[in-house]
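Side project, low priority. Logging it here so it doesn't get lost.
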Amino acid sequence: MQLIDKDLLSMQEVRELVEAAKEAQRELAGMSQEQVDHIVRAIADAGVRNARRLAQMANEDTGFGIVDDKVIKNIFASRGVYEYIKDMKTIGEVGRDDAKGVRTIAVPVGVIAGLIPSTNPTSTALYKAEIAIKAGNAIVFSPHPAALRSILETVKVIRQAVAEAGGSENLVSCITIPTMEATDNLMRHRDVAMILATGGSAMVRAAYSSGTPAIGVGPGNGPAYLEKTCDLPLAVKRILDSKTFDNGTVCASEQSIICDEDMAGDVQAEMERQGAYFLDDAERERLGRFILRANGTMNPEIVGRSVDTIAKLAGLDRVPAGARVLVARETGVGRGHPYSNEKLGPILGFYTGADYRDVCGKVCEILHYEGAGHTFSMHTNDEKMVDYFARRVPASRVLVNTPSALGGIGGTTALQPALTLGCGAVGGSATSENVGPMHLLNLRYVAHGRRELADIRAEVPDCSDGICRAGADLSGVDVDEIVRRIIGRLQAG
């Protein structure tokens, strides 16, 4: 019988891809660290060589972003990630403590399901392929349909690089008939050990509810605080550079800015000097109705679009040509306050607070509404302010004096380079870290016995009268002699 139903065809493809990936992973499991690293290096080199071509295809497929910025993202996801992970020990024994008699062995999880979004399609595929194979795994991608062509071409580049480096090309594969049924089938497949989910909230929730262990990330909705001691022109430059990078498609990019009330005039003047356009009340209302859909979710028509395009779509006819970002004053958070949401385009909400305490409260309110556990950035020359906010804001990344989009992914900071950014428990994520190879393997511990049961029993406190004493009665005991004996035992190992 020949299958003609698209859903059935896609599910059959998933079964074949996972089976081939499982066999390829078995071969990889027999390779040395050097052989694995050679394959990862080949992927990185191929990603750099093809960075512009893949960037162009991603832009053509989705209409999102800026080609030159996508080139940077592809190189970052290839060479940047590789340079950070290249010296990691991820195969075989990765740790040994002879004094304690404990050895640590890395164990690959097996086959990983990788969900690829439309916002960063080619760069995410390169990044996930590298970290999966570095950890000894195979990966099967579920592509966003809007970016299918560019993702498939990226996978083709990766597979060729893997084969030329001596690995099985089936270590990396991709669904060619993307359907919801195929993705669901992939995530629930008995031979898929883990899901690495990057995408919309609904997709991440589906990953966590699939029954398969998953690493997913929540939405970014990071506020940026311009504190009184900041270098204001430089802070504004960093924010605008960040928010306009690839037209705001990086989830760690600033979604709103906030400053003390007495700074508002200076901040607006500096932002306007550097190309920001502040909407009047009528324009703010008009754009606010456009950027969110009726159900309160982000309108995909603003994602990765230029200011000119968004202005035309929203019917804003007074926005000057060449404006870099659209800025709207906002006073509230939640439903009815569209600028308090994530906006993956060159649009910023503008808040003020009475002082830094009030600012911190509003930042926390924004993040708890959307973006909990993701990213917060601040511009300040006062380390006490950094400490104050770092102890209070519900964010896994607190970025200081850097463009948030590039800082959050590890481009302008020393954070692990990644395009999947964990949000921790507060954000419903399994990790709060930038995801790398060490999240995609298990650690097996080999531990040698060092004590007998009799030794443990001998140390049980006296409980004869029904109350166990924390320590023995030391009256008449030579404590110094006991200390000397303990030190001697420790030195003897």
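Brief comment: The longest helix spans residues 6-29.
Revisit when time allows.
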